[in-house]
Amino acid sequence: MADLEAFFHEDSFPETCTESENKAKEFVKYHEDTGIPVALVTSGGTKVPLEGNTVRYIDNFSIGTRGAVSAEFFLQHGYAVIFLYRCRSLEPFTRHLQNLHLLDILEVNSNEHDRNSSVVVKSDYCPQVLNVLKTYQDVKKKRQLLMLEFNTLGEYLYLLKACSIALSPLGNRALLYLAAAVSDFYIPKDKMPEHKIQSSDGPLQLSLEVVPKMLTPLVMEWVPNAFVISFKLETDPSLLISKSKQALDRYHHQVVIGNLLDTRKREVVSVTKDQENWIRLTDKELSLGVEIESKIVSEIVQKHRTFCSHD
Amino acid sequence: MADLEAFFHEDSFPETCTESENKAKEFVKYHEDTGIPVALVTSGGTKVPLEGNTVRYIDNFSIGTRGAVSAEFFLQHGYAVIFLYRCRSLEPFTRHLQNLHLLDILEVNSNEHDRNSSVVVKSDYCPQVLNVLKTYQDVKKKRQLLMLEFNTLGEYLYLLKACSIALSPLGNRALLYLAAAVSDFYIPKDKMPEHKIQSSDGPLQLSLEVVPKMLTPLVMEWVPNAFVISFKLETDPSLLISKSKQALDRYHHQVVIGNLLDTRKREVVSVTKDQENWIRLTDKELSLGVEIESKIVSEIVQKHRTFCSHD
What we know:
2 copies of one chain form a homodimer. By secondary structure, the first copy, chain A, is of the alpha/beta class. Helix content of chain A is about 40%, strand content about 25%.
């Protein structure tokens, strides 16, 4: 924990971070009155700079599918959602249009009765766009969704702390769904070269330190009464359950969702103090395009209700 | 060079790479007849995997502004452009709408005379969208632009080689503008751990090898008669010119554009065998939103014409 504080002090944060912090406070304040539960969904990978004047960084594979899809299902279940996501990773709603090239779906509509031409979505794409647009506008009207961006590991940790503290007045109505793929390693500022590493110097030796775990202060201090779900991604199946249990034992939060890189879109395991529950899609569900996040979120919402009723 | 061949053999490439290779061949074949010059513009960073089942990779800061903007100016100068870009980095034309949230600029237009509702761009955004859309449609109609995506360093090198060889029949009409920020270091497959590196094992030691330089075979073998421009990005001003000259001496291509991380949007230096020419934006140009790529591309097009006329 002392480590994590040192991490906050050694980094400097862009102004957008404090703007985002204020938006989170306002959003939570608004939903203190609506009475609906509020989920913080984190999503996407984190960048870890390798140089002071950063040209290179370590990143991870995440484009944020898990987080973006889950956010939509939390909204469907009536939650307000703070979506804390890595800049340029997938976003709820727009992700459905991701495979379309914006300029290919638009056309100029020159109206003979009107001197101004307008731009319309080509009729072929209308049903798809219309569907997403209506849901998005509905969510926006209800002020159900707040989107906050981060880039680096430092910005992520700063905003995670800020959002957690903002959520704490909601007590057990707050839910944290930590789906972002946070880097485990970083190079401390004082050990970073100032300038771009030169390839003419030959092979590169990098020494990275372990990122301090933020789940301890998050659960113990920042938002002690919330319902907290973390994620464990592994590539080795033999480690999945043991690593998930280890995380629960260490941080004393409520759920770990374990998943393997290769199979993460069709099965995950939900691990709590008392049970391990595999959540799977059948072949038929897969072929119909059912998203496993619909089942994960349903299970989490159910567990959150039980958690609130026992409190 | 032997190194680079080994690199190609040790990597495996997705099917999309051969599809892209075929598209490049067709595109060049089409433009052999149109007679216009063809530019290959590379753009964005390259991912370098750190693990066999990749969770982590080394990346660099580039979002591909230089490449995307330059591609537009080459099109304006009448070039056909193969835009070889990192997946999810900036694209020509759509980049102008990047700051807009797609679902915020659209609205449902329910027509009382028509049972089907349509989706239109809100009138506030129409002029901006219309402008980009018309240019894009014009370029598309003339088959002036081919966009090809890559992700990893391996995919980039594969496609760079494929596109270069495809362009070689055009002789000096082909121009290569290598603005992608290619990683200098990588971990060879046989030295990569199979599974995700565990943070519980403590600090991480990484040993990266220098990526074989592809400019030597590119200039000497793949596309020997083309006009080739490479980029040199540094953070230390004292190294910029010497590094740029070194590159020219080593690879025997035509131009190095040198730029510093901090000032790259307002000044670059164009280095050739005979001269160094600083290209700068005045404060007034900066405030008017002039993009430095307009000047870089003008200069390059001029040099390319001279190059062709001397051949």
